[in-house]
Design brief:
A hairpin with a 2-residue loop joins β3 and β4. A four-stranded mixed β-sheet has the order 2-1-3-4. The protein is α+β, with helices and mostly antiparallel strands and 206 residues long. α1 packs parallel to α3, α2 crosses α8 and α4 crosses α8. It is globular and about 45 Å long. It is built from nine helices and four strands.
Length: 206
């Protein structure tokens, strides 16, 4: 019997990248067979909603300077710990909206290949994931027509992304990566082990 786990992510989150990398490379040991339902959401919209701002309000850095420095050091340390390939994004703060909109339109193997390709482009290859050519190349890799990008770049797709992110926030999810199993939310790459514990407890329960 396959157990369903929802995984909420934004490509721009290094911790979402680490979680996806661990799952993809078999570095996360689940005690049961898992069907991962990957859900693209905008971290910027989640942060705006937390602060009571409009979904598409201009970005405001939520971190103080010491916490920002710690984040940078922690991302490097986490990459070393998991032996995950990591190069600083270029440009540093990328716009992931179009990539998220494309991902939301894909399912199954196409979604998986596109998702992994975008994560690799951003965190390994220093490629701008807002560049239409990057998105088209990742779509081709997923054996999907690059014309999908036209729909993904439309205002309708942005509106759908915002609406889904707002629905996600209403469920109690405030950041990425977040995992939902049996109605319980676990936030962060470092909660994958706790997720495994929960999955195992469910298997051994009455």
């Amino acid at each position: 019997m396959v157990t369903v786990v929802e995984a909420f992510y934004d490509f721009r989150s290094p911790y979402a990248y680490f979680a996806a990398h661990r799952i993809r490379e078999g570095l996360f040991a689940s005690p049961v067979s898992v069907e991962w339902l990957w859900r693209p959401v905008s971290i910027d919209i989640l942060l705006n909603l937390q602060a009571g701002r409009d979904a598409w309000a201009d970005y405001v850095d939520p971190l103080c300077a010491p916490k920002r420095r710690h984040l940078v050091a922690d991302v490097r340390r986490t990459a070393e710990f998991y032996k995950a390939p990591l190069r600083p994004p270029n440009p540093p703060r990328q716009n992931s909206v179009a990539a998220l909109c494309v991902a939301a339109m894909l399912e199954g193997a196409a979604h998986e290949i596109f998702r992994n390709s975008i994560f690799d482009a951003l965190w390994q290859n220093q490629t701008d994931i807002a560049d239409p050519e990057t998105l088209k190349a990742c779509l081709v890799r997923a054996e999907m027509a690059p014309e999908i990008l036209d729909e993904a770049l439309s205002p309708v797709a942005r509106t759908k992304l915002a609406a889904f992110t707002e629905q996600t926030y209403a469920r109690g999810i405030f950041g990425v990566p977040s995992f939902v199993f049996d109605g319980e939310i676990l936030f962060g790459n470092d909660r994958l082990e706790m997720l495994a514990w929960r999955l195992g407890s469910k298997r051994s329960g009455p």
